[in-house]
Structures are given as structure tokens and as C-alpha cells.
TrEMBL record:
<dbReference type="InterPro" id="IPR010158">
    <property type="entry name" value="Amidase_Cbmase"/>
</dbReference>
<keyword id="KW-1133">Transmembrane helix</keyword>
<feature type="transmembrane region" description="Helical">
    <location>
        <begin position="77"/>
        <end position="98"/>
    </location>
</feature>
<keyword id="KW-0472">Membrane</keyword>
<keyword id="KW-0378">Hydrolase</keyword>
<dbReference type="GO" id="GO:0016813">
    <property type="term" value="F:hydrolase activity, acting on carbon-nitrogen (but not peptide) bonds, in linear amidines"/>
</dbReference>
<protein>
    <submittedName>
        <fullName>Allantoate amidohydrolase</fullName>
        <ecNumber>3.5.3.-</ecNumber>
    </submittedName>
</protein>
<keyword id="KW-0812">Transmembrane</keyword>
Length: 104
């Protein structure tokens, strides 16, 4: 994700609705699809990955892929990695009871 920035050198700048943000959306959506999530991008540019569970209730875990100007390389992406790791744990180890949505 660090390569999707408008700044050179130190820090990451990925402001909402910019070319860099659109590149990040495309990358994240492809990665989510690769692991089996059903994805969509909403009107605000949030990527939503969905997994059906046995019950109607939904657990939503979220983070963000945009950044402030010259933000840290892990700003937002750490939360995205955490969310996806929970999904992988649910699929491979536990039986999913509730629906799971990952919103970034």
C-alpha cells in the first residue's frame, strides 16, 4: 500500500477520492476477492468485504486506507490487516456464526 502515495520519500499521502486512493481501493478489493470475500465499494469509497454466517446478526470490523499528509506507512493498513486476519481465522479455524463485514 505504501506505493499508493502522492509524496516522495518519507511518509504516505493518500487523501480520499484521489488517484492514489482509487489505486488502493482497486488493490484491496482484488486482495479481498482472492481470499473469498464478496466485495463492493460504496458511495463514500469504502470497500466492504462480506462473508455469510449462520445467523442474521453481523459483526463489522473496520479501518481506513486513506491517510493524512505525510502519514505513517502503517496508518490504516494495520487495521485492514487485522480485519482480514480475523476473516482468515474464522474460515480456517472457527465456524462462523454471525455474518462478518470488513469495511475500510
Amino acid at each position: 500500500m505504501k506505493e499508493f502515495t502522492s509524496t516522495k520519500g518519507y511518509g504516505v499521502t493518500r487523501l480520499p477520492f484521489t488517484k492514489e486512493a482509487k489505486q488502493a481501493v482497486s488493490y484491496l478489493e482484488n486482495e479481498m476477492k482472492k481470499i473469498g470475500l464478496k466485495t463492493r465499494v460504496d458511495e463514500s469509497g469504502a470497500i466492504i468485504g462480506r462473508l455469510e454466517g449462520k445467523k442474521e446478526k453481523t459483526i463489522i470490523i473496520g479501518s481506513h486506507y486513506d491517510s493524512v499528509s505525510y502519514g505513517g506507512s502503517f496508518d490504516g493498513i494495520a487495521g485492514i490487516v487485522f480485519s482480514i486476519s480475523i476473516y482468515i481465522t474464522e474460515i480456517n479455524i472457527m465456524k462462523l456464526i454471525y455474518k462478518l463485514k470488513i469495511a475500510n
